[in-house]
Design goal:
The chain is mainly alpha-helical. It has helices at residues 4-18, 32-40, 45-58, 116-137, 141-159, 170-194, 199-213, 224-234, 239-254, 261-269; strands at residues 20-21, 42-43, 63-69, 73-75, 78-80, 86-94, 98-102.
């Protein structure tokens, strides 16, 4: 084939049919792409996307790897994206229409696909979370007091029945039930968030929390890399420690240079709210 679209489609179909999707990887190889293409014939979405992009480039078709999310779920007025929905695919530049999307990953590897019972449990807990946010968290204290009072009045007749004589007041049971739902929700989110997370990713999450508390002026929608670059241009004292921590994250996540707990604490300790008056010079 010589037509760029045909080339991309043929390679996409070939990888889908002949290679297998798996998250179980052997020990890290010197060249993971060669290992994927010529030894294991199995990998995850980043392997498929990288292989397709490189093969397109060898045939003079401009291509790039794109990382984002595939799938998601709508709950009420919100869209839910889980960590399992993270995905990688390819965009190839075609002369007749610019950038077009191609996805060589088999259907099994596109987005998180939990078992039916796990999905049902997750949906139930997330629905309860949504109800709690909309009916309690977003309510003022006065609204919450009115709601609890109304529920208490609704349950009050039940309190006179014999079977309720030795039980706590219904309003207390209601509060206990809500607290139980909140606790189960927290535990479930923590389990789902930590399952299969790379240690370096946890360091990045801690770094982002630290930067937000530092008062660095992190703009909405601004990436932490863009923030570090902007602070560097401004001569901000937090520019250097943020860039150092980011560099170690990238080395740990993609360069097989783990960052230990003590080193993490040291890097994060350098990011604090600076005490600089308007008349003080900026520290590069």
């Amino acid at each position: 084939a010589t037509d760029p679209r045909t080339i991309a489609t043929n390679l996409e179909d070939g990888l889908k049919k002949e290679w297998t999707y798996t998250l179980n990887q052997p020990e890290a190889a010197t060249d993971p792409l060669l290992q994927f293409l010529f030894e294991t014939h199995a990998g995850h979405c980043e392997h498929f996307a990288t292989a397709l992009a490189i093969m397109l480039r060898t045939l003079h078709v401009p291509a790039r790897v794109v990382i984002g999310f595939f799938g998601g779920e709508r709950i009420g007025e919100r869209y839910l994206l889980r960590a399992g929905d993270a995905h990688a695919w390819v965009e190839a530049y075609l002369p007749e229409g610019g950038w077009h999307r191609f996805d060589a990953t088999p259907e099994l590897g596109r987005g998180g696909q939990p078992s039916l019972w796990l999905l049902s449990l997750s949906n139930f807990i997330e629905s309860m979370e949504e109800a709690w946010r909309s009916k309690v968290v977003d309510y003022s204290l006065a609204d919450q007091a009115v709601m609890v009072s109304s529920l208490s009045r609704a349950f009050r007749p039940l309190g006179r029945l014999p079977q309720w004589g030795k039980l706590p007041h219904p309003s207390l049971l209601l509060v206990a039930g809500l607290l139980g739902i909140m606790g189960a929700s927290f535990l479930w989110r923590s389990y789902r968030r930590r399952r299969g997370v790379h240690p370096a990713t946890r360091f990045l999450e801690a770094l982002e929390r630290r930067v937000r508390r530092s008062g660095a002026g992190w703009g909405r929608g601004e990436s932490i890399e863009a923030l570090a670059a902007r602070l560097h241009r401004q001569g901000h004292p937090l520019a250097r420690p943020i860039k150092n921590a980011l560099r170690r994250y990238l080395e740990a996540r993609f360069g097989e240079r783990p960052v230990g707990k003590s080193e993490q604490r040291g890097l994060l300790a350098q990011i604090f709210r600076p005490r600089i008056s308007p008349s003080d010079p900026q520290i590069p």
